[in-house]
Amino acid sequence: MFKHAAKPCIASYCVICRDVQPFFLTRIGRPETGVAVIGACESCGLRSIVSPEEFLEISPTRPESVRELMEKTSPRLPLAIADRVFFEKRLAVGEIDPPERIQALREPFQVLSGMATRDRWLAGAIIASTFFGVVVMLGTLLAWDPQGKVHILRYGSMGPLIKGGLLAIPALAMFLTIGVYKTLKWRGRIRNKLIPLLARSLRPLRPTLDELDRTYVWLLTASNPVATATTPDQVHEAVCREPDRSLVNADDMDILGLAREMHERLTAQAEEHSRI
Questions:
Q1: Cα-atom radius of gyration of the chain, to the nearest Å?
Q2: pLDDT-derived band at 136, boundaries 50, 70, 90
Q3: What is the pTM of this model?
């Protein structure tokens, strides 16, 4: 059975998977401050904000098939994503123009920049808390009198300053070590999350290392945090190992065929109404 089958879900298009996928919904926030609905892709785990009013209904559980879920929650999805699916098919066989290819290479980095941004903020918070800890420890040592009384250093008295400075060295080393360790550990976790997602999304493009190098130059120019959390070599190596899993559900459901049928039906209805 599916891991989150009991959660409410919808069917939507995932730009990382390049396919129609179930998205499991979670509400975050409080009514008094605002509530948002977050959808998590069943396959890749990509999280994004979802507007429930855009769907016919929200399925309380995940049906056995993606098509059943799509027909229940978003029956017009084939029409909405037909152009995108057609683009993906052209992309897979190398029939896209160079400007389109450049944009396709950049897209997953742009989509995943939010994840890397959270990494940057957390790393900054760790460094800031480490610095604050050092300041507090140093201030405490400098202000502590041998008789157990706290006082402010008198001007010209260097004895407590030297003593406090010597005692603060181990504390400084400890806090810096903890800060660097936590920062590197967190960045490693983020890198391990980002690279598989980038590899999955880029696999249909089969980018060369030179293409990734040029993409990273653009990312650095645009201050995209993914460029500092990963490297072109890491991504290229992961892409080479990744199987192409794009459009599996879309082809199974024949999204383009469904879109064509919907378009013909809507056109016929419009013509019928125009004659009345």
A1: 27
A2: low
A3: 0.75
